[in-house]
Amino acid sequence: METEPKKIIIDTDPGIDDAMAIFMALRSPEVEVIGLTTIYGNVYTTLATRNALHLLEVAGRTDIPVAEGSHVTITKGAKLRIADFVHGADGLGNQNFPPPEGKPIEESAADFLVQQAKINPGKVTVVALGPLTNIALAIQLDPDFSKNIGQIVILGGAFAVNGNVNPAAEANIFGDPDAADIVFTSGADVLAVGINVTHQVVLTAADREKLASSNGKFAQYLTKILEVYFSYHEEAYNTKGVYLHDPTALLAAVNPLLLTYVEGVVRVQTSGITRGLTLLYNKQKRFGEVNEWSDKPTVKVAVTVDAPAVVKLVMDRLMDS
What we know:
- The structure is a single chain.
- The chain has 321 residues and is of the alpha/beta class.
- The protein has a single domain, classed as Ribonucleoside hydrolase-like (Inosine-uridine Nucleoside N-ribohydrolase, Chain A).
- The chain contains 13 helices and eleven strands.
- Residues 8-311 form the Inosine/uridine-preferring nucleoside hydrolase domain.
């Protein structure tokens, strides 16, 4: 029996691995991308919007709407940290692409999310590849959003491993910890894919060579922009490969069987030196006292990934583009 493709909205801060994830989504018949919403993270929001429009032009998919997201955190904080040292000043490997012709739609990202979830209740999956501000705003905007949205797949958190911004925090959660806590406790169907899982999924220099030698349009494009990303990983992690954070989270939405999950309550630390820390309560103990995890909705947290299968899917779909 034919199942219709899952509708997804990618909330994104492109970003080199965001570009990979967006191209992957467009090459995955299991899903239909119904929109991109933009957020700060790898770059500021304005540039994220420009890059999202640019990537859709490269893909020949200017029919997909782009809604611009928040420029500040949920508590109105300015964006403190941009990962331009990871992705290049333009977010896409310093290739200086010409500006896109397209424009974002009138609605804000949060409005667009609320609207799409309302039109297709239970049928839309949001794949959140950056800080969670837009998703938290949608939750605040519409009390029914958590019920209407099918699933929220979050790339974020460092469950029981060191973070990648500092030992406590992973970058996307660190970008807006207050928003993250709102999303984790919203009661929506949330699946978190953290760096405890994505650090197992590595694209090697040999894989990059393979991409370079293929005729795939997306493969060719990515080979160029991956240069900056590879040199960052070598410097920061002393490794000759790159972590496939965003493509792994995207594939969790495409094929949930690639990962295994545990369920529990996740709270996010919003202040102090562990700001951005994600802590999962595994429900193994019943505590006598009420605490900040008591009576909160549960979420799923990824604990293992079939890394070879993820890398193979990424390679196959991008080379065949």
